[in-house]
Amino acid sequence: MKIILRDNLDNLGILGEVVTVAPGYARNYLIPRGLAVVATKGNLNQFEAEKETWLKKAALLKADKETIKKALEGVDLSFTRKSGEEGKLFGSVTSMDIEAALKEKGFEILKKHIIIGEQLKSVGNFTVNVKLHHEVSAEIKIEIIGDKVVEEVVETAAPSEEETSTEEETSTEETSEETAEEATETEEETS
Q1: Nearest C-alpha neighbor of 82 from the set 122, 52, 110
Q2: Annotated domain spans of the chain
Q3: Rounded-to-integer distance, Cα 191 and Cα 188, Å
Q4: CATH class of this structure's domain 2-67
Q5: 5-18: per-residue pLDDT in tens?
Q6: Which of 10, 12, 105, 128 has the most Cβ atoms closer than 10 angstroms to its Cβ?
Q7: 145-147-150 Cα angle (round to 5)
Q8: Alpha-carbon dihedral sign for residues 50, 53, 59, 64
Q9: How far apart are CA 29 and CA 23, in angstroms?
């Protein structure tokens, strides 16, 4: 099915482009969400008439995203996470964490626009891309600081022979005392 795109879609095309997609994808997803219209002669003529308006809106949107890009490129984010001795994190820094940190700094960026190339699972400095527009993306510097967790290893020493013999004598004495008490109780019950 041929459709006219009313928005820029990453894997499909840009605004105003006529593309062919599966009929179900067009009817069930693109058209109901206002992302596309069916490519009929009437719709093509209407789009050509509105093309200048769409292009002006697209240019304004791109300019707005460029200003956001300039502001974002000056942002450095820092995260402190628990880590082991080798600098590996217990967990990772995710796009949700980055989204929340950016929101605290006044930026409204959706997590789906934050592109993390590799998982952030170790201590260090990283660069993350933020896709603001199909032609505009910004890079954010991220520092992950490790809060080292000290693993306490409790060594259990083997008991010496003296300790072992003392423990055995104590347990033998306790057992014989319990047996004597039980015998006394049994005698009292039978009387």
Answers
A1: 122
A2: 2-67, 76-148
A3: 5
A4: alpha beta
A5: 988 787 888 888 89
A6: 128
A7: 145
A8: negative
A9: 10
39-73 b/e with 16+ CB inside 10 Å = b?
beeeeeeebeeeeeeeeeebeeeeeebeebbeebe
Q: How far apart are CA 122 and CA 89, in angstroms?
A: 5
Residues 6 or more apart in contact with residue 69 via CB below 8 angstroms: 132, 136, 137, 138
Do the domains spanning 2-67 and 76-148 agree at the CATH topology level? no
CB 146 within 8 A of CB 86: no
Class of domain 76-148: alpha beta
Structure tokens, 189: 């019950």
Instruction: List, for residues 33-85, the tens digit of each pLDDT value.
Output: 999 999 999 988 888 888 888 788 888 988 998 998 898 888 889 999 888 88
